[in-house]
Amino acid sequence: MSQQSVVVGTIGSDAHVVGVTLLEHALEEAGFDVRNLGAQTPKETFVDVAAETDADALLVSSLYGHAEQDCEGLHEALAARDADPVTLIGGNLSVGQSDTAAVERRFEQLGFDHVFDTETELETVVDTLRADLGIDEAAKEPARIRS
Ligand code: B12
């Protein structure tokens, strides 16, 4: 089976790069083909790379509080390029203390399939992607030898 492809990056003018670097390593470790666009990646670059690589999933990171503005029109631009990856966004998605449920609703309205906060475990991200992309992990793992 070919590897499922994933694009990750930090959107807009956001310079926080540690989260996406950890995501990159966790996803590679889990068997995904990962393209890490790094920090301060324009929305248009996410769209271009997702369309050109026919990505299965697009993971957007944002920490500095301006995610909503940065992500406006992202899903429309993907659709215009006939790209339909599963989309996840995570990080510190608004400025200051916010109602988590309201933040989640807002980003779902913008088109994201899953919205995660800063407490997200990397394992949860991997599990979410596997479930959405229909990856049967049990079938991929070699049989374990019982002692
Ligand atoms: C390090 C840091 C910086 C460094 C970044 C260095 C670098 N190159 O990465 C520097 C000093 C440059 C910086 C700058 C700024 N920062 Co700063 N920074 C931090 C800090 C202390 C840690 C961030 C970090 O690396 N965390 C560790 C990683 C592993 O965690 P993470 O990024 O959250 O990622 C995890 C999850 O969020 C999640 N995740 C992240 N992305 C995604 C994406 C998906 C799809 C999924 C599923 C999950 C996921 O998974 C990761 C693993 O669990 C945080 C405070 C904090 N404790 O979070 C502030 C913080 C993010 N910064 C903040 C601010 C305000 C700024 C500045 C605006 C400050 C300023 N006035 O200049 C600038 C912004 C510059 C810019 N253009 O982006 C605020 C944001 C506030 C808000 N959103 O309301 C924070 C929260 C500090 C605070 N409490 O006020 N910062």
TrEMBL record:
Catalysis performed (reactions): (2S,3S)-3-methyl-L-aspartate = L-glutamate
Cofactor list = adenosylcob(III)alamin
Report the GO molecular function annotations.
cobalamin binding; metal ion binding; methylaspartate mutase activity
Domain named B12-binding is located at: 3-136
Q: Which UniProt keywords apply?
A: Cobalamin, Cobalt, Isomerase, Metal-binding
Record-linked Pfam families? B12-binding
Q: How does it assemble?
A: Heterotetramer composed of 2 epsilon subunits (GlmE) and 2 sigma subunits (GlmS). GlmE exists as a homodimer and GlmS as a monomer.
GO terms in the biological process aspect are: anaerobic L-glutamate catabolic process; L-glutamate catabolic process via L-citramalate
- What NCBIfam families does this protein map onto? MthylAspMutase, PRK02261.1
* Residues the record lists as binding adenosylcob(III)alamin: 13-17, 61-63
The name on file for this protein is: Glutamate mutase sigma subunit
Q: What is its EC number?
A: 5.4.99.1
Q: Which organism is it from?
A: Natronobacterium gregoryi (strain ATCC 43098 / DSM 3393 / CCM 3738 / CIP 104747 / IAM 13177 / JCM 8860 / NBRC 102187 / NCIMB 2189 / SP2)
Pathway where this protein functions? Amino-acid degradation; L-glutamate degradation via mesaconate pathway; acetate and pyruvate from L-glutamate: step 1/4
